[in-house]
Amino acid sequence: MAGVQYVNIRRDVDDKFYRYRMPVLLTKIEGKGNGIKTVLPNMSDVSRSLSRPPTYPTKFFGCELGAQTSFDEKSDRYIVNGAHDAAKLRDLLDNFIIKFVLCGSCKNPETDLTITKNEDLIRDCKACGERTNVDMRHKLVTFILKNPPKVPKKSKGTKKQGTADNQGTNGPNSPKAEAEEPAVDGGESDDELTKKIKSEAADLNQNATIVGEDWSVDTSAEAVKARMKSLEGGMGNVKLGDDDSGEEGNGDDPYSQLGVWVAENQDEGPVEVFKKVQEMGLEKKHRAVQVLAQTLFTEDILEEIKLNAPIFLKMVTSEKHQKALLGGLERFVGVDHPDLTPLIPKILMEFYQIDVLDEEIIKQWGTHVSRKYVDKETSKKVRKASEPFLKWLDEAEDDDDDDE
């Protein structure tokens, strides 16, 4: 295309006949003051050359710069908050290529990203055949696991082969088979959590009267209401109800039942908890996230967030889910465990670091008192306690702007 400049994907290779090339990354500064941002107008073209979704390098920039990012794939718009020099972003793109594109063995960029059964990221090289690991410590890894790569478009036969996977064309452990699995679709993901759920499903059904005996013996409305009443003190009058109605639970709705089960089985671990959520058909419901935030944790919440991170990474998939999580946490510290209110900055930090809560959503929540989940005074108290973390977010962004 006329006017488009290209460079070698490996810019350290000084060979004008190098076959792997990409467009030069372009940048455009928009806005001013606190609203200044760097738009990446050709990020989709650059990413297409790398066989990676454009959200990956954009998010990588945010991770490396400590800046908030946003993207709208429908309008093909990718943004990094703050004013960033084009040369600096191109250098960061080189780092992204080294870490998430180039084969760890032959340094060829013709690789696919795949997720293994153990939730490891692998660069599958089509040039030398080696499968090399990605550094799992990088924050971008969490984002990729939450937004798994789709089937590579370079392989024209991939879509046709998708119908043959069950016939053995691509084995269940093959990179293509793993990449084609949806992230969350009724428990069909190939990550470790869901694998365990699927493998243990038969045992769960056969031993239904053993696991949680009281729960399995009597699930009538009367029995559930009775257990709700007995747990009332410990659960702080959990506000549960229909997913969209905002009404209080009456003891026989699925959210109240989930809350009772989680409160009674907190020690079962993330696999059993998510299995119960799936069994009840609530894995995509934002209200289920609120229930878990209210009932899954104890005074050891900071450690428990790490333990249960896979659940929230799978279930928190939209802004509505994030707000439901914050609402549940608001009731957890504001009503159920008021003595833990001073920990809210650390709690928010934990969810922020595992990439479950976005900076923009946290800031919006922290600056708008709401009576949706708690009374107005409690809402004010919780948000007041969160101020150190909100200040940290603002200072991190200001520091980034000053550096520019």
Automatic annotation (TrEMBL):
Domain of life, source organism: Eukaryota
Keyword annotations: Initiation factor, Protein biosynthesis
Name of the molecule in the record: Eukaryotic translation initiation factor 5
Lineage, highest ranks first: Eukaryota, Fungi, Dikarya, Basidiomycota, Agaricomycotina
